Amino acid sequence: MTSVFWNAHEIIFINCLGKGKTINSDFYIALLERLKDEIAKKRPHLLFHQDNVPCHKSTKAMAKLYELGFELLPYSPYSPDLALSDFFLFSDLKRILAGKKFKADEEVIAETEEYFEAEHKSYYKNSIEKLEKLND
User: Domains plus CATH for the chain?
Assistant: First the structure.
């Protein structure tokens, strides 16, 4: 499982979860704390958009978002668990990785990071604009 935090300019950071592990509220809270640190290095304020996965919407996670000062964008309660941004951010990556065999998690992580590093900055801006149109 890979969590990608990004904005209209770049990938902020990527976190890969090892095989057999799951994301729970405590793990997600730790990701949010790391995200806040990464954002502080790059930008003073960002809007935050997440899906409706239970650990993202848990009382603990929502309290952490509030504590960290994130401005959470609304997400329709009837939307699927898949974040709308996934359609724009991961579609090409899924196509590139399809059918490949990897011997270790590190190989998948390296290829994913290379993919995002190779993308032109307009890729992220265009994806954000598509996401904004869907939210209008």
Answer: 2-135 (3.30.420.10)
